[in-house]
Amino acid sequence: MNLESVMQELEALGKERLKKMYLSNGAHEPLFGVATGAMKPIARKIKTNQPLADQLYATGNYDAMYFAGIIADPKAMTGADFERWMDGAYFYMLADYVVAVTLAETDIAQEVADKWITSGEELRMSAGWSCYCWLLGSRPDVQFAESKIADLLELVEKTIHASPERTKSSMNNFMYTVGVSYLPLHDKAVETAKAVGPVEVKRDNKKSSILLASESIQKAAEKGQLGFKRKYVRC
């Protein structure tokens, strides 16, 4: 399949209801409003195709950009490729659920995520923290330096309340993910979450959200979810 045929198939799958929902969450035109599950049959036909993924991502069409992440070949992507993709990620669903997810399947994931976390740019910072969430939630604990994850928890405690809104959400999710999926620092994650307390995340034209990682970790523990690792990061 080529760019034109994929775009035609995606357009045919578009739903007005989903389009409105995506727009309300920060997407903008062009987009079709395609359910992520509806993309899977097309993905099965294509499997992995990095050149086509780059073409789709470059369209600026939200659905095409999301689909690009599904058929991308992460190990064929360089740091410069991920920077280019982040440049095009204009809202959190692209930054956290396309770029960060794809990055999490590479050997350069921590290196790039570390750079983004200290970038000072809201969506890059958010993607960096999100990437660590995808990594910690899928890879064995032994693949991470305990001291490094501990340092990141301390950075969250010191800076989360003064961070940009979307970054706050991803940092809060990082505390939760360490507490649930990275057992060596479960106790430290709980301590950090209690020290941080409620995190207010303001949203444009919507009511603010109050996040409380300590309660979320406790609920996961009560459900027997500590040590959870997902089998796959991408769809």
Number of strands: 2
Pairing-aware structural class of the strands and helices?
A: mainly alpha
The gross shape turns out to be: globular
Number of helices: 13
Q: What is the H/E order?
A: HHHHHHHHHHHHEEH
Mean pLDDT figure: 96
Organism: Paenibacillus medicaginis
Protein name: DNA alkylation repair protein
Pfam families: DNA_alkylation
What are the salient characteristics of this protein?
235 residues, mainly alpha, two-stranded antiparallel ribbon, ARM-type_fold, DNA alkylation repair protein
Secondary-structure map with pairings?
Elements: H1 3-12, H2 16-24, H3 40-46, H4 50-58, H5 62-71, H6 79-88, H7 92-103, H8 109-117, H9 122-136, H10 146-159, H11 165-181, H12 186-196, E1 199-203, E2 206-211, H13 213-222
Helix pairs in contact: 4-5, 5-7, 6-7, 7-9, 8-9, 9-11, 10-12, 11-12, 11-13, 12-13
